[in-house]
Structures are given as C-alpha cells and as structure tokens.
Prior knowledge:
A nine-stranded mixed beta sheet has the order 3-2-4-7-1-8-11-10-9, sandwiched between helices. By secondary structure, the protein is an alpha/beta fold. Helices cover about 40% and strands about 20% of the residues. It has a domain at about 5-120 and about 210-230: Thiolase/Chalcone synthase (Peroxisomal Thiolase, Chain A, domain 1, 3-Layer(aba) Sandwich), CATH 3.40.47. α4 crosses α15 (about 340-350) and α8 (about 165-175) crosses α12.
Amino acid sequence: MPAMRRVVIAGASFTRVGEHWEKSLGDLVFEAARPLVSALGGREVDALYIGNMLSCYSAVQSNLGSYAADILGLHDIEAFHVNCAEASGAAAIYQAVLSVRSGRYDVVIAGGAEKMTDLPYRRAVEGVSLSIDGGLVRRTGATLAGLAAIMLKEYMRRYGVSKEMITYLSVQDHRHAVTAEHAQFRREITLKQAMEAPPAADPLTVYDVSPLSDGAAFVLVTTEDVARDMGARYVEVAGMGMAVSTLSVIDRDDMLDFSATRRACGKALREAGASIDDVDVLEVNDDFSITGVLSLEALGLFEEGQAARMVYEGRTSLGGEKPVNTFGGLKARGHPVGATGAYQVSEIYLQLTGGAGANQVGDPEIGLVHNYGGLDSTTVVIVLRKPT
Length: 388
C-alpha cells in the first residue's frame, strides 16, 4: 500500500458574515472561492467539495456540487455536495484532505456556503433543528435552543456554576469580534446586557445563542509540493477525526457528555502526534454559550464543570493561555451553518501563517478546529500545524 501524502492548506478565502440580502447563494460561493481559483495561476482544479445544510430550504437548490462548479467556471472537474448539518463545512474539508492524501487528486477547493436570512425566522429555526431528531421536532416543536436550555439548567445544577459565568463566553466572543473584519457583530457587549437580554429559551437569552447568518468560506487543499511551487503560505493538516453520537439528546446516557467531540478530538490528536496541551489556538463550536462550555471540556482543555470558570477568568481570551474563537466564534463572527467549519479552518490558517491582523495571538505552532452538527451528534476535529 503506498504511503499517504502530506496534505496542506495553501490558501483561504471567505466573505464577510452577515445578512446579505442583495446576494444569492451563488454570489457568495463565487465571491469566496474565485480568489482561490485565480491564485492557482492556471493550474487545474481536480475537485470541489461544498458543504451546505439548508439550500433546499433557503435557495430552492440541491445538487450544489454541480451548481458551485458551474458558477466558478470549473466544467471539467469532480464536484461533491457534503451535508453533515452544521458540521458540513469541516466535513467537506475532511473529505477533500482524504482525497488528496490518497493520491486521487492534487488540487481541491473545499469549504461551505449558506444563505439563511432569506428564510422566515420560524422556518430557519425549524430547518436547523432538524439536525437533531426530525420526528421529535415535528411531534413536540423541540428546537436546538430549547434542548440547549435544558442542558444549561442541568449543568448549573450539577456543578454549581452561575449563569453569569456560562454567558461570559458570549461576552468574550463579542470582544474578539470587534477587530475581526469579517465578523457579523463587531461590537462589545457587557455581561449585564447579555444577562438582561430578551429570552431565547429560558434561561438562555438572545446573547447566549448564535444568529442566523449568510456567508461562504473555502480553502485550497493540496500537496506540499504544489504549495511550494505556487509560493503560497501553507499549513500542514496534521490530524483529523470524526465521530457520531446518539442523534437525540434526550436519549443519551448523559446529555452533558459530548462524546463525539471527545472521540473525534482523540483521533485527530493521535494522528497529529500531539496532545491538547500542545494546541496553541482553537476555534470551537459554540452555537450556544452552554455548548461552547461543554465542548471545551469534551476537548480535554478543562475538567468537567470547570470550563465556564476558566473562560470567566480570561484563560481563553486573545491574551490568555489558550485563546479560543479568536475572531468571535459562532456567536459574534456568525454561524452560516454549512460554512461555519470552513470559516474556522480559515481562521486557524490565518493564525498559523501570521495573517490574523489585530486578532493575531503571537506565533502559534498548532491550531485545532472543532465543528459539530446536531448538538454533537456529528463532529469533525481538524488539527493544523506550521510546516517543519
């Protein structure tokens, strides 16, 4: 069996996250991905992987592989639409990396795009909530926010942690987003504002919940030889992991145990030959403040019941020991669901190549991306490393 090839990310391009009323899904794809095609300088693109969750709802469009390839003028390639709910963006990149490692392709464009704000709010919430258990959603009206609220109540009861400490993750996200040019909400909020905001699903307020967002992000996945030949700044894909858990949160043995995150992270770190202590910067799935806290614990960054306190003490801020969500995370950068993982990979790429501007966290060597769908029912973890 031939040895697997070393795979790198050799470029990243993305749109601003926000409410793009004037743009179609195709416009966002073109704006984000076309610069990567141009950067290849005439080299052929072998394949395209696009992550998306809601296009049949929001854009009345399926078959997105062909759709995106056509928009980009790439008519002689292989193209794939990847749907792993909110993990679609990272899953698309995961598949692209595997395809280049295997030798099937040399040059792949991968990422995600989502257009959410054209939908009525109720329909958007229903569409996203189908990532948990469609039968439960239809029978009971359950939503992601409603289930996250139950998790929040149980976390506070079990560990004696205050709501203020958990909500502080959203305050940190907004502070990081102020200097992130592509973020949806570039403004600080106070803890008092977050606590007194209108309820989303008691005790969650609207500041505990990620917004509806439009956006697209793509990366160039290729070999180290191609990246060097291009003269591109690149980072190594050092390790990857993917795992699933019980789809319905209420059927899990412990709803606070993000087991898919734990297992996917373990796989990725083992492949990278690293530990969580070696990771310098992280982009973590925090679609709700409580799920961000649970994710930090499942990744092994903090002990169970301790993550909220550590965030509150500044351990995960831009100047902290383990910077997390350095461009605002899902709450403030925004959460265009099928594209979120691709934004996260792009942001770690910027950190490791020194291109993060005012959000740069020094000179990190290793970064980690954590992107899940359906409250940790499908989870992808990708570890990136500076080339040696």
